């Protein structure tokens, strides 16, 4: 699709996009900001649009996702952190914590558990742990994305089972440690 065709399609949706932005934000200024951000994002990613698909739905999805991301960001920014001095638990003196040092999971033990995994599970899990995204792992290992996700899931499940068999139920451990 040429830039001219893309811009023409975008121009035909301006009124619809502004209306949708206003419904989401409830203020004119925020709606204009959301509309502008959506337009910029669409123009910078126009090569990702597949001709023959629903352009209007693509644009509305971009706008909705931008709004959701901004909303989540604002929610985190509005979180109130109580900085008052509350040392009740520290100063109580009667609170004892049961700590059995030999039940602490060490990094070496966890690495041993990972090493014991089947190679088909270990490689995707290790790559994901190192920060690779699912798609990157899929591309490097030449495996379908769903296979990568399921192997990482099964690796986590196997690790949880190994930890549980070695140390018992997580809730029991937390109760022993006094964190619950």
Question: What's the arrangement of secondary structure elements?
Answer:
Blueprint: H1 3-12, H2 14-25, H3 28-44, H4 55-77, H5 88-91, H6 107-115, H7 119-129, H8 134-141, H9 145-167, H10 170-177
Descriptive tags:
single chain, 180 residues, mainly alpha, 2 domains
Query: Radius of gyration from the CA trace?
Result: 25 Å
Number of strands: 0
CATH class of the largest domain: Mainly Alpha
Give me the CATH fold name of the largest domain. Arc Repressor Mutant, subunit A
Order of helices and strands: HHHHHHHHHH
Count of distinct structural domains: 2
Shape type: elongated
- The proportion of residues forming helix, as a percent range, comes to 55-70%
Low-confidence region ranges: none
Q: How confident overall, as mean pLDDT?
A: 83
Major pleated sheet = none
What share of the residues does DSSP label as strand, in percent? under 5%
Tell me the number of helical segments per DSSP (H or I, 4 or more residues long). 10
Superfamily (CATH H level) name of the largest domain = Winged helix-like DNA-binding domain superfamily/Winged helix DNA-binding domain
Oligomer: single chain
In CATH, the architecture of the largest domain is: Orthogonal Bundle
Compute the separation of the termini in Å. 59 Å
| Structural class by secondary-structure content | mainly alpha
Model description:
With 180 residues, the chain is mainly α. The chain folds into two domains: 3-77, Rna Polymerase Sigma Factor, Chain: A; 88-177, Winged helix-like DNA-binding domain superfamily/Winged helix DNA-binding domain (Arc Repressor Mutant, subunit A, Orthogonal Bundle). 69% of the residues lie in helices and 0% in strands. The protein is built from ten helices and no strands. The protein has helices at residues 3-12, 14-25, 28-44, 55-77, 88-91, 107-115, 119-129, 134-141, 145-167, 170-177. Helix 3 crosses helix 4. The mean pLDDT is 83.
């Amino acid at each position: 699709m040429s830039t001219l065709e893309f811009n023409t399609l975008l121009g035909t949706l301006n009124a619809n996009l502004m209306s949708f932005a206003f419904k989401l934000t409830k203020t004119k200024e925020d709606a204009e900001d959301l509309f502008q951000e959506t337009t910029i994002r669409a123009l910078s990613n126009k090569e990702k649009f597949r001709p023959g698909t629903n352009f209007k739905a693509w644009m509305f999805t971009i706008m909705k996702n931008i709004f959701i991301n901004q909303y989540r960001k604002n929610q985190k920014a509005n979180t109130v952190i109580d900085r008052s001095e509350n040392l009740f638990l520290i100063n109580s003196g009667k609170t004892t914590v049961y700590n059995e040092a030999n039940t602490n999971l060490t990094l070496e033990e966890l690495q041993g558990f990972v090493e014991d995994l089947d190679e088909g599970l270990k490689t995707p899990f290790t790559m994901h742990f190192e920060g690779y995204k699912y798609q990157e792992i899929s591309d490097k290992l030449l495996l379908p994305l769903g296979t990568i996700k399921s192997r990482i899931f099964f690796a986590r499940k196997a690790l949880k089972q190994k930890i549980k068999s070695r140390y018992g139920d997580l809730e029991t451990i937390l109760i022993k440690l006094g964190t619950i």
